[in-house]
Amino acid sequence: MRDNTATAATPGTAAATDGYAVSSLNVVGHTDEQLEQMLTVVDQTLAEMANAATAIGAIKKRVDLQKDYTSNLMDSIDRGVGQLVDADMNKESTRLQALQVQQQLGVQSLQIANSYAENILLLFRN
Length: 126
Known about the structure:
By secondary structure, the protein is an all-alpha fold. The protein has one helix and no strands.
């Protein structure tokens, strides 16, 4: 791993002990060996940046997949709740119709019973 805190090399010094940071590179007045070391630092930095970009891309892809999964899950839950509400409304509507039919039958039974009572009273009057 590269040392980001390294200082720039002094022109004309031995390159073997010089440390380089990409932000402090200056190619003026350096030896070929120092320039090769600087290129190595730049290559290492590019490789690290590519690795970091790959990691960020992979993380972004995972986040996007999780977001899509969550969105699809929320949609399916909404549909399921809607179907449950519809099913409950159908069930309650059917119960209401049954109760209304029972009520109508009860009213008709009372009317029939009342008419028979009136007919029996008419028989006794005559």
